[in-house]
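hiii so um. not sure if this is the right channel but i have a protein structure encoded as tokens and i wanna go backwards to a sequence. like what aa goes where. can anyone help
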């Protein structure tokens, strides 16, 4: 491997959390050299680590948008099933609990709607609670 390719591979391996000893064995580079590279390439390793974690979060569907979508779809399914049930059915209580749990999870994901303006944040809740008579002309 040429020096640049070796350094790129070093960054990848450090981003994966490999130790200097393991990297030294794989790349056939001395540990003191790797430590020097680690100081030189600290930002690159940190960025690679961040990108790697972002990829893992996406891969395992832990991104917030995906959680909201999944909770919402599951809640819709539970509520649709509840609509077909008679409250005398024993499993209905379990479905009601699931609906409440998923509703709580969905609420926990909610964020307030705010739009940033030039001089101050725009608060949608404040606008919606204002009556028409209090609006400036």
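sure thing!! here u go:
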């Amino acid at each position: 491997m040429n020096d640049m390719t070796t350094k790129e591979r070093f960054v990848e391996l450090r981003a994966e959390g490999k130790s200097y000893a393991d990297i030294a064995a794989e790349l056939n580079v001395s540990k003191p050299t790797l430590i020097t590279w680690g100081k030189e390439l600290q930002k690159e390793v940190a960025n690679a680590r961040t990108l790697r974690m972002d990829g893992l979060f996406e891969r395992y569907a832990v991104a917030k948008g995906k959680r909201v979508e999944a909770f919402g779809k599951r809640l819709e399914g539970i509520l649709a099933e509840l609509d077909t049930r008679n409250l005398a059915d024993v499993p209905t209580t379990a479905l009601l609990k699931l609906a409440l749990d998923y509703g709580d999870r969905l609420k926990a994901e909610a964020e307030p709607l705010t739009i940033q303006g030039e001089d101050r944040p725009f608060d949608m809740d404040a606008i919606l609670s204002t009556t028409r008579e209090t609006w400036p002309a």
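oh and The helical segments are 3-15, 20-27, 31-40, 42-59, 64-84, 91-109, 124-129.
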